[in-house]
Amino acid sequence: MTQELRGMRVAILATDGVERVELDEPRGALQGAGAKTEIVSLHPGEIQARQFDLNAAGTFPVDPPGRRRLRRRLPRPVAARRHHEP
Predict the structure, then answer these.
(1) Is 22 helix (H, G, I), strand (E, B) or coil?
(2) Where is the composition biased (Basic residues) (predicted)?
(3) What is the mean pLDDT of residues 16-43?
(4) 64 preceded by cis ω (within 30°)?
(5) Structural class in CATH, domain 1-63
(6) The pTM is what?
């Protein structure tokens, strides 16, 4: 694989109930291209992956731990921004 993403950090937003294959496949492709990946979520600790939406398929640690740190990294929603009319 090429290393076109070498040195880049990519956040993968996921939560409980994510299909394991839908997390593993893109994450593997990003890592194969040289990126460092972090799984981020709205709650600290771990998220529970699923297989076929029915079976538990393991857990993944969440980085950074907690919504407070994630919230600081996200832009404010457009509706919440103040718009000044002339």
Answers:
(1) helix
(2) 67-86
(3) 91
(4) yes
(5) alpha beta
(6) 0.66
Joined tokens for residue 54 = 């029915």
In one-letter notation, the amino acid at residue 73 is: R
Question: Quick check: 81 pLDDT over 60?
Answer: no
Task: Look at residue 77 and tell me whether its pLDDT is greater than 60.
Answer: no
Q: What share of the chain is helix, strand, coil (3-state, %, to 5)?
A: 25, 30, 45
Q: What is the DSSP letter of 79?
A: G
Residue with tokens 């994450």: 27
The two tokens of residue 25 are: 């496949």
Q: Measuring CA to CA, which residue among 84, 19, 15 is closest to residue 43?
A: 15
Tokens of 28: 């593997």
Beta strand 9-13 pairing with 36-40: parallel
Provide the 3-class DSSP secondary structure of residue 36: strand
CB 34 within 8 Å of CB 7: yes
Structure tokens at 4: 């076109």
